[in-house]
Specification:
With about 280 residues, the chain is of the alpha/beta class. The protein contains eight helices and eleven strands. The radius of gyration is 18 Å and the shape is globular. Bound molecules: zinc ion (ZN). The site of zinc ion has 9 residues, from loops.
């Protein structure tokens, strides 16, 4: 059955990425869709996105990056909103700066939420697509590794546009479907281990999708610092791995990370297209 691109509506091509796994790729905008029935995760349990120490590092780098971008674009945040706030650790950093925080999260029971955020933040528990964004209510909206999971990202982009005040920023981080890592590692690309990753935007498709939601200025970069062990995890995934729990399960994995990280970072520094994630900053004029 033909699959049409959810962003630009062109007919998507089937792309065999190894071991019979097939992704759908848009020839016009490079957008990728993933159907789990023809592109397997190769790990039966839900693949958790990383270790706790990597998460802490990622949260702190992401927070600092957003602060720097807001300074650069002269945004003085009074209130910020996180889509998919998880345990609330990034919201906590904003709260500690005296900024009002709110957010939406669909996992109501599974995660322990930071006590201060719980007490002082405005938290909603729903799927992002079902949340009613309040018009002109915040200066920054962000979602870290979020849009690749959503059923209907364009609805969330439109809601975010409505909720931002003039001059406000939508900030997203998501795996890049146009990363040369996906071509290099094929079905071993670690971003495929999470069965809930149903799409990978390209720089072009995310710009197009955000443009349709109203954003006129969209800046896409490929950060060197996000998902730093992804290439190493992809190598591990290509070798034998725990079919139940995925590649991060092994006891020796932290040592392998430590040994190979200089290689991975050098490759990322030399070949920006190899970097696995897209960082997107979209502004409401
Ligand atoms: Zn397309």
């Amino acid at each position: 059955m033909p699959v049409n691109c959810e962003v630009c509506t062109s007919k998507m091509n089937e792309w065999e990425i190894g071991h019979g796994n097939i992704l759908y790729r848009c020839p016009e905008c490079g957008h990728i869709r993933r159907d789990l029935s023809c592109c397997h995760a190769g790990a039966r349990d839900h693949a958790y996105g990383g270790s706790e120490s990597y998460d802490r590092l990622r949260n702190s780098l992401t927070f600092r990056r957003m602060i720097r971008l807001m300074k650069k674009h002269r945004i003085l945040p009074r209130s910020v909103f996180e889509i998919g706030f998880g345990s609330g650790l990034i919201l906590r950093k904003f709260l500690d700066q005296g900024i009002d925080v709110s957010g939406v999260e669909r996992n109501m029971l599974e995660i322990e939420i930071d006590a201060e955020v719980k007490k002082r933040g405005t938290l909603h528990f729903a799927e992002a697509e079902k949340y009613e964004f309040q018009k002109d209510s915040c200066d920054l909206i962000y979602g870290v590794h979020l849009v690749e999971h959503l059923d209907n990202p364009s609805k969330v982009f439109e809601g975010s546009y409505r909720a931002l005040r003039k001059g406000g920023m939508l900030y997203l981080i998501t795996p890049g479907g146009d990363s040369s890592g996906l071509r290099r590692f094929g079905d071993a690309w670690w971003n495929l281990e999470d069965p809930t990753h149903v799409r990978f935007f390209s720089a072009e498709s995310i710009s197009l999708a955000l443009g349709k939601a109203g954003f006129k200025q969209v800046v896409v970069r490929r950060p060197i610092w996000d998902s730093m062990t992804l290439e190493i995890n992809s190598l591990l995934r290509r070798k034998k791995h725990d079919e139940k729990k995925g590649v991060l399960h092994g006891k020796l994995v932290p040592l392998v990370h430590l040994a190979l990280l200089p290689w991975a970072l050098t490759a990322r520094a030399l070949f920006p297209k190899f970097r696995s994630s897209l960082e997107v900053a979209a502004f409401k004029e």
